[in-house]
UniProtKB/TrEMBL annotation:
InterPro entries: HTH-like_dom, Integrase_cat-core, RNaseH-like_sf, RNaseH_sf, Transpos_IS3, Transposase_IS3/IS150/IS904
PROSITE patterns: INTEGRASE (PS50994)
Signal sequence region: none
Name of this protein: IS3 family transposase ISCce3
Protein purpose: Involved in the transposition of the insertion sequence.
UniProt xrefs under NCBIfam families: transpos_IS3 (NF033516)
Domain Integrase catalytic residue range list: 87-250
Length: 254
């Protein structure tokens, strides 16, 4: 085996390791970025070619949709303060939240998530079998306890009855948060959390078979807390993970 063949074999071995180390969730762009950070001189085209030849294909989602927003209610609607302004200057200034459906053989589940726009970190989440106000309150409480944000944080959601409820509005007031809500039927107003749920489904939900709710809870914890927040690199964050990006911010301001 000549030096060219040895390098190709070593490169393919490293690509295969990175692919499996990230549970088959990385395609050629992220694997190329990871390799280049390790010192490899390699193009995305070559990485894609080698992956195709080795049968390494990242997870692909199957599309189906379950309605998770009930906007037919008489509760007060907050103005759309966020207004698709997804640029902010620090963590814990703007949070977005939503609910998505999680299929499970033992019975359907719903995930309420709270995402920090600056870091793309999931700061709070709760998995439950009903789309109740308690579900979204639990995710918000977890986020508040974990992050301890300053007063004035902008909290954006859709117009769902859970977020518009008296209990939820009272909790936002207790935490000194300002409420913002999307326009009716406009998913782009909450694009950041919609994007997270899309990634979640593509990389995890539709590549995993949940037989029990206990399994779903454990696997969700591992995906969000151990992989997505701490390990998964994001192009919009300079190919850092949300936790790394957050840590870098506080290092710079300290």
């Amino acid at each position: 085996m000549n030096s060219y063949q040895k390098r190709r074999a070593a490169l393919l071995a490293r690509i295969t390791f990175i692919f499996h180390d990230h549970f088959g969730r990385y395609g050629s762009p992220k694997i190329t970025e990871t390799l280049q950070r390790e010192g490899w001189t390699v193009s995305e085209r070559l990485v894609g070619k080698l992956m195709k030849g080795a049968g390494l294909r990242s997870c692909v989602s199957r599309k189906f949709r379950v309605q998770t927003t009930d906007s037919k209610h008489d509760s007060p609607i907050a103005p759309n303060v966020l207004n698709q302004n997804f640029q902010t200057t620090a963590p814990n200034k703007v949070w977005v939240t939503d609910i998505t459906y999680i299929p499970c053989r033992q019975g359907r589940l719903y995930l309420a998530s709270v995402l920090d726009i600056y870091t793309r970190k999931i700061v709070g989440w709760k998995l439950g079998d009903r789309m109740t106000t308690d579900l979204v309150l639990a995710a918000l409480d977890q986020a508040y306890e974990a992050q301890k944000p300053p007063k004035g944080l902008l909290h954006h959601s859709d117009r769902g009855s859970q977020y518009a409820s008296e209990e939820y509005r009272a909790r936002l007031k207790k935490y000194h948060m300002r409420a913002s809500m999307s326009r009716k039927g406009n998913c782009y107003d909450n694009a950041c959390i919609e994007s997270f749920h899309s990634v979640l489904k593509k990389e995890f939900i539709y590549c995993t078979r949940f037989l029990t709710k206990a399994q779903a809870q454990q696997d969700m914890f591992e995906y969000i807390e151990l992989f997505y927040n701490r390990k998964r690199i994001h192009g919009s964050l300079g190919y850092l993970s949300p936790v790394q990006y957050e840590e870098n911010y506080y290092k710079e301001v300290s």
